[in-house]
Write a sequence for this structure.
């Protein structure tokens, strides 16, 4: 019986991945865990591993293909197992164009708080999608393994038209031709035809409604005296992903902002002591540590939002925003509450380095519960950050300034004050909660000895 | 305006052809004294005599063979098969001799004959006298297949068929014989393999043959009241087919409906759908291409059953409306 | 000489004909029969060597019918024959080279390589073709007859078919129509006594096929098909009748084919002895040869040398064919429509 190799859902929000290259050949013998295929997701390259030891039989997608997650991308056989007699027919019927997606447990499923098994066999992802759309799964037909309901089944029930069983948008030939000609993505266009099919008129309406052309890829920039006034860069890859996600975040989450000023005296002391010991310790690491401690005291802030479900995490996974030439990436340091400052610093250095070398793993981007974005070194006084979904809060760190402040006797004293701004998602975090959090964070930063307790 | 019936138009065509060309003669069952089962050849016997208006015994294979042999040796026969159903008795001669002789002989010899026959249902003649078998002949290389839908078309196409140096299967419709229309007096020809756009419209391309052209026109008049404009196209010659106007029309309207009397499965409609879907017109389609044709049953005797077996004006209206309104 | 004792009787019997047609005619007939046989034998050989494709229906043994019938016809008359018709075509005057080229599917063949063995036609000489359908040509003859009458010429149509064809429906339709319209047709039934594997006595409830003529009230006659002069006489009589406007006739010419129906026939339906008997004792070439030698019209040496002449003709035909080109693939769709 052939073994299916699935394209894993590396992250909660991952929908598809592109196949960069097959690292093996059909017919190769592989050991369980060997990397057989390299794929790229929003931001990082990932490897798909062989689930068992055996022989690779057939690759179902070519290099360059975009594959929905949980799809079967290859089939293998156990050692000494021969391909089935009707092998080609089997491949065609099970994994051909209309084959249903095979349900698989997502990698990060261990953190799911809901332990009870549903009566209807359904993948966790499908359940989340259904719940997000308020769709009852009771009457759905599952097309996954053992009739499990898959995400695709839920999507099909929600908008039976939106996608054909192959995942393509349903559109008439005339609509397709016009969309191609107008250089618009069919997936963005709502269809008014039967079963939600996109008709040409729908594409025409969509195109007419665009304020500006999306891309002027084929038009050369106008030249003046031999020098162009503009350069056109098409948004792809990371840039496009960032654009899409940030827009969505900003639109969906009602952001509320809270400022605080942190007296960095204590932080500076810790740092100089570390320096004296010849240990590197950045402000960011301290911020991470303090944030983790504070988050565990405030479960509503150490949370992620999924549809109408708030997931409160029992561990603090802090993302640290790293600026790259092509955009922004937020690698995560996991289980910070278990780590000392030294470990945090080490990990921080590691992820930043790997981020800059484009060798982050999916794990590095997963399961963040809170993000810190430190732009203090850029000289910015303060700024407000956009929350990184599905998280519910983000801390923006501005620069540290030496200012005169009145002391208890109303005498001016110089203090180094670091500006921080908390953005919180008001759907989950109320003003009072945010204020309390920020207060505790300040306390932790101004008196780090609390962290030892 | 000069109006003749479809039968009269055919008769006039035959008469004019036989007057002009002494090599043209007609042969078939009951075509002489009786004047033909549907009256098409009435009066020709007294005008042209027994030599050129030949009544035969009931011998369809013989009739076909006689046409072929005569055509091979300098004549231009117009044979009549009394009901299209009986053409089945000529199949060997038509398919294996008439259609193939020229090719088998390396392009030498030709068979300039016409074989006329009335097809179609609606007269209560039941299963063995109501056939529409034109697509059988469309499927045979070497034959031409013509289906006139009006008196004007009937005369012009018949004269063109007689002129043509190939074997032409000329399929008339029983219910059309008494229909009237404008028919010019002179011996005009309507070229074979030239598709006719009968009515212009922008919402739906309707390709129809024979009597379905008439039903489609009636449907178009009704639908025009609802603001739906049908474009009706009559190929006139099914083989060789002039499909360019059909393709251009579908590119304009984005929707197509093919209507014919013959059974849907294996019928001529499939050929048109394949040409639309398989070529240039594909990128212009806004809806699936649909066919309206007979049910996959022999023609029943009962009137109402017979009526509902084949497309009628009402069913064309319903289907056309559905297509235009996006039901598919 | 097999029929030695019958010779004087035959010479006596055919005295008038021999006088009428003359020695050259007779010698030509003999030569043509030799040519036909040489052609058929070579065709068989080429087929076995794989140089001819498809199938082959050989008329070895039936030469007298072909030659006797054709020689009774005039220029301008029409011929319709059947799949075992190489002999008929050669007797009608067709060029062995172009026939051989057609067998080899060459562009120079009578049908530009499109027809093959079963469909040889030479339209210019009014040979309207061999027919691959049993009795397929019989209804066509009705049309030819009608055409002759309408054009008021004195042409006649000779349609040759086998014993098997006489049981096809189309045969009866055609005979009936020819009889009611007095068409100038000779229906020549070349009865070689087997319709593939079906022996004639099993397929017919009549002993002679010619008796079917009475059903249509036309003359019918059965002759010894291996006696070329007998065939000539019968067909000539029928042709004269037709030319006088007296209508069609049915001539049954009883003969025998030495080879199987086609190349894939194992001949399980008859005995070797039967075949041997016909070959040894009733061979048509031998019979005419003996007659001419006995009558002093030719010498044995001259008669025998006709075989060599025939072989030479065939050698040339093969060479011509092998040197001819096959049809150009680009011309594949030509010749469908006029």
């Amino acid at each position: 019986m052939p073994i299916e190799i699935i394209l894993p859902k590396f992250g909660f929000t991952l929908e598809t991945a592109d196949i960069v290259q097959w690292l093996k050949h059909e017919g190769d013998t592989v050991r369980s865990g060997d990397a057989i295929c390299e794929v790229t997701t929003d931001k990082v390259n990932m490897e798909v591993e062989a689930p068992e030891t055996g022989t690779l039989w057939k690759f179902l997608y070519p290099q360059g293909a975009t594959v929905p997650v949980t799809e079967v991308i290859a089939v293998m056989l156990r050692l000494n197992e021969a391909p089935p007699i009707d092998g080609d027919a089997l491949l065609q019927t099970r994994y051909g164009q209309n084959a249903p997606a095979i349900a698989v447990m997502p990698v990060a499923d261990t953190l799911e708080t809901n332990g009870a098994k549903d009566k209807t066999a359904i993948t966790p992802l499908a359940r989340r999608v259904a719940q997000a759309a308020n769709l009852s799964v009771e009457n759905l037909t599952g097309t996954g393994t053992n009739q499990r309901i898959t995400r695709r089944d839920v999507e099909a029930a929600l908008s039976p038209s939106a996608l054909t069983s192959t995942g393509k948008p349903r559109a008439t030939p005339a609509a397709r031709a016009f969309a191609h000609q107008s250089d618009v993505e069919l997936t963005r266009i709502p269809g008014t035809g039967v079963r939600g099919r996109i008709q040409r008129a729908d594409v025409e309406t969509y195109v007419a409604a665009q304020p500006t052309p999306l891309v002027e890829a084929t038009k050369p920039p106008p030249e003046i005296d031999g020098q162009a006034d503009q350069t056109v860069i098409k948004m792809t890859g990371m840039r496009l992903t960032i654009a899409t996600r940030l827009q969505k975040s900003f639109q969906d989450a009602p952001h509320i902002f809270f400022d605080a000023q942190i007296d960095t005296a204590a932080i500076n002391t810790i740092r100089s002591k570390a320096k004296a010991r010849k240990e590197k310790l950045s402000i960011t690491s301290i911020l991470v540590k303090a944030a983790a401690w504070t988050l565990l005291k405030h479960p509503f802030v150490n949370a992620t939002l999924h549809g109408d479900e708030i997931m409160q995490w029992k561990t603090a996974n802090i993302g640290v925003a790293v600026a790259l030439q092509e955009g922004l990436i937020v690698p995560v340091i996991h289980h910070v509450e278990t780590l000392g400052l030294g470990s945090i610093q080490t990990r921080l250095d590691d992820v930043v380095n790997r981020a800059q070398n484009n060798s982050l793993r999916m794990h590095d981007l997963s399961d963040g519960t809170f993000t810190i974005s430190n732009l203090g070194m850029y000289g910015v006084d303060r700024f407000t950050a956009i929350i990184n979904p599905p998280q519910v809060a983000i801390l923006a760190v501005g620069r540290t300034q030496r200012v005169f402040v009145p002391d208890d006797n109303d005498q001016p004293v110089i203090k180094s004050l670091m500006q921080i701004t908390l953005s919180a998602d008001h759907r989950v975090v109320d003003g009072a909660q945010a204020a309390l959090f920020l207060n505790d964070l300040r306390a932790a930063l101004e008196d780090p000895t609390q962290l030892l307790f | 305006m000069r109006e003749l019936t479809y039968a009269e138009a055919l008769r006039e065509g035959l008469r004019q052809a036989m007057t002009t060309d002494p090599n043209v003669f007609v042969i078939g069952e009951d075509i002489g004294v009786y004047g033909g089962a549907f009256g098409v050849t009435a009066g020709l016997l007294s005008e042209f005599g027994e030599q050129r208006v030949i009544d035969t015994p009931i011998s369809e294979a013989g009739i076909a063979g006689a046409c072929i042999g005569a055509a091979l040796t300098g004549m231009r026969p117009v044979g009549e098969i009394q009901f299209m159903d009986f053409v089945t008795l000529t199949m060997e001669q038509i398919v294996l001799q008439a259609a193939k002789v020229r090719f088998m002989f390396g392009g030498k010899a030709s068979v300039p004959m016409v074989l006329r026959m009335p097809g179609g249902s609606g007269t209560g003649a039941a299963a063995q006298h109501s056939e529409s078998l034109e697509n059988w002949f469309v499927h045979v290389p070497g034959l031409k297949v013509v289906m006139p839908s009006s008196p004007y078309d009937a005369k012009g196409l018949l004269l063109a068929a007689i002129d043509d140096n190939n074997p032409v299967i000329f399929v008339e419709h029983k219910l059309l014989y008494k229909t009237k229309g404008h028919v010019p007096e002179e011996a005009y020809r309507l070229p074979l393999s030239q598709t006719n756009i009968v009515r212009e419209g922008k919402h739906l391309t309707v390709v129809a043959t024979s009597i379905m052209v008439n039903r489609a026109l009636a449907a178009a008049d009704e639908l025009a009241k609802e603001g739906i404009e049908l474009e009706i196209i009559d190929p006139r010659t099914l083989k060789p087919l002039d499909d360019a106007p059909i393709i251009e029309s579908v590119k304009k309207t984005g929707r197509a409906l093919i209507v014919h009397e013959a059974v849907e499965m294996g019928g001529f409609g499939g050929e048109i759908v394949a040409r639309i879907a398989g070529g240039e017109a594909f990128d212009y389609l806004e809806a699936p291409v649909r066919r309206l044709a007979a049910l996959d049953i022999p023609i029943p005797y009962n009137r109402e059953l017979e009526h509902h077996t084949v497309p009628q004006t009402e069913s064309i209206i319903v289907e056309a409306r559905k297509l235009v309104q996006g039901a598919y | 000489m097999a029929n030695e004792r019958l010779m004087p009787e035959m010479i006596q019997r055919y005295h008038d004909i021999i006088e009428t047609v003359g020695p050259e005619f007779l010698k030509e007939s003999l030569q043509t029969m030799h040519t036909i046989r040489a052609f058929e034998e070579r065709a068989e050989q080429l087929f076995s060597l794989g140089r001819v494709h498809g199938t082959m229906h050989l008329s070895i043994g039936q030469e007298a019918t072909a030659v006797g019938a054709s020689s009774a016809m005039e220029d301008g008359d029409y011929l319709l024959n059947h799949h075992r018709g190489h002999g008929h075509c050669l007797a009608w005057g067709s060029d062995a080279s172009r026939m051989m080229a057609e067998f080899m599917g060459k562009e120079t063949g009578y049908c530009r390589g499109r027809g093959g063995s079963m469909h040889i036609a030479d339209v210019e000489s009014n040979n309207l073709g061999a027919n691959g359908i049993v009795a397929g040509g019989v209804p066509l003859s009705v049309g030819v007859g009608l055409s002759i009458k309408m054009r008021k010429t004195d042409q006649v149509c000779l349609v040759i078919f086998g014993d098997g064809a006489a049981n096809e429906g189309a045969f009866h339709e055609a005979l009936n129509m020819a009889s009611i319209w007095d068409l100038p047709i000779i229906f020549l039934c070349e009865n070689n006594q087997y319709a593939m594997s079906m022996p004639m006595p099993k397929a017919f409830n009549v002993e002679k096929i010619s008796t079917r003529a009475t059903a249509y009230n036309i003359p019918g006659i059965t002759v010894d098909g291996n006696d070329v002069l007998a065939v000539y006489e019968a067909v000539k009589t029928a042709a004269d009748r037709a030319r006088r406007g007296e209508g069609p006739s049915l001539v049954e010419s009883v003969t025998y084919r030495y080879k199987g129906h086609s190349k894939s026939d194992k001949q399980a339906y008859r005995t070797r002895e039967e075949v041997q008997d016909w070959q040894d004792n009733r061979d048509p070439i031998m019979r005419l040869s003996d007659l001419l030698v006995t009558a002093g019209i030719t010498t044995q040496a001259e008669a025998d040398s006709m075989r060599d002449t025939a072989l030479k003709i065939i050698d040339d035909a093969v060479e011509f064919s092998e040197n001819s080109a096959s049809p150009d693939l680009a011309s594949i769709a030509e010749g469908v429509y006029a």
Notes: Chain A is about 30% helix and 25% strand. The radius of gyration of chain A is 26 Å. The domain at 255-452 of chain A is CATH 3.30.559.10 (Chloramphenicol Acetyltransferase). The CA atoms of residues 128 and 307 of chain A lie 7 Å apart.
